[in-house]
TrEMBL record:
SMART domains listed in its UniProt record: Fapy_DNA_glyco, H2TH
Protein name: DNA-formamidopyrimidine glycosylase
Cofactor: Zn(2+)
Recorded catalytic activity of this chain's protein: 2'-deoxyribonucleotide-(2'-deoxyribose 5'-phosphate)-2'-deoxyribonucleotide-DNA = a 3'-end 2'-deoxyribonucleotide-(2,3-dehydro-2,3-deoxyribose 5'-phosphate)-DNA + a 5'-end 5'-phospho-2'-deoxyribonucleoside-DNA + H(+); Hydrolysis of DNA containing ring-opened 7-methylguanine residues, releasing 2,6-diamino-4-hydroxy-5-(N-methyl)formamidopyrimidine
Keyword hit for DNA damage: yes
Source organism, top-level taxon: Bacteria
UniProt xrefs under InterPro entries: FPG_cat (IPR012319), FPG_Glyclase (IPR020629), FPG_N (IPR035937), H2TH_FPG (IPR015886), Ribosomal_uS13-like_H2TH (IPR010979), Znf_DNA_glyclase/AP_lyase (IPR000214)
One annotated GO molecular function: class I DNA-(apurinic or apyrimidinic site) endonuclease activity
């Protein structure tokens, strides 16, 4: 699933390509009666309304909130896109890569270019919100602070952790109501760098370990953005190209390999924690 660095990479690409463009039309081949998708373009009735409301509107800005992409358009409306497990956006003449062939939604602009949504598993979410109240809706109102913002300091990090003192550290890091944007890949890499075992309960963390985790969050997420996201699976940027963070993994998907920490003789292990895979060093992550 695309996490904060992948979504931020996508948003940066969209800011450079679609801001200022006008929507001519939209298309989808999605169609479901699933009540959980009643307010998304996958629902035919909702799509009819969606199409009418966005056609002719101008793209004003693009922003990110956690793993959500917010495309603000004229008329006081916002298109919210959540990539979920296998979704990614593609613009214009993108690279023809096998993972880019699952097109299920498209926006056509008046300049004849298109923004496509490729989603192999069809779990992605596309809906329409009022811009003024978007952050108060069920889609965004229960999300924790953004970890790369200046206001997210060590004090705030401790306060957020204290809300789930009985939880296992990896699970708490991935809880979107605690901190925004961290998922399976980056939690593994953060904990490897901080030397913390993913099964450790938050209440058992020492002061120095919390400080190391805080520094690792800032470092690892920034590094993920610098490398254009992680394409170990099927994430691609808006030009259809893979990111490079997967070339720098220290823990994630390295099961059975030697730990890369200098002088550490550990082996990377894999263990399922609360239904999610965790990868960690058998020696230095205590």
């Amino acid at each position: 699933m695309p996490e904060l660095p992948e979504v931020e990479t996508t948003v940066k690409g969209l800011r450079k390509t679609i801001v200022g463009l006008k929507i001519k039309d939209v298309w989808t081949d999605l169609s479901t009666k699933d009540k959980r998708q009643k307010e998304t373009v996958a629902n035919p009735k909702f799509f009819t309304v969606f199409r009418k409301e966005v056609s002719g509107k101008k793209i004003l800005s693009v922003e990110r909130r956690a793993k959500n992409i917010l495309i603000n358009i004229s008329g006081g409306r916002t298109i919210l896109i959540h990539l979920k497990m296998t979704g990614h956006l593609l613009y214009g003449e993108y690279k023809k890569d096998p993972v880019n062939r699952f097109i299920h939604f498209a926006i056509t602009f008046t300049n004849r270019e298109k923004l496509y949504f490729s989603d192999m598993r069809k779990f992605g979410k596309i809906t329409l919100l009022d811009t003024k109240t978007a952050h108060d809706t069920k889609h965004l109102n229960n999300i924790g602070p953004e970890p790369l913002e200046k206001m997210f300091n060590l004090k705030m990090f401790k306060e957020r952790l204290s809300k789930k003192r009985g939880g296992k550290t990896k699970t708490v890091l991935m809880d979107q109501s605690i901190i925004a944007g961290i998922g399976n890949i980056y939690s593994d890499e953060i904990l490897w760098r901080a030397g913390v075992n993913p099964e450790r309960k938050v209440s058992k963390l020492r002061e120095i370990e919390i400080k190391l985790m805080f520094k690792a969050i800032k470092k690892i997420l920034s590094k993920g953005i610098d490398f254009g996201g992680d394409s170990m699976s099927d994430y691609r940027n808006i030009h259809g190209l893979p990111g490079r963070f997967q070339l720098h993994h220290q823990a994630y998907q390295r099961t059975g390999e030697k730990c890369r920490k200098p002088k550490c003789k550990g082996i990377i292990l894999r263990k399922v924690i609360n239904d999610r895979s965790a990868h960690f060093c058998s020696i230095h992550q205590k």
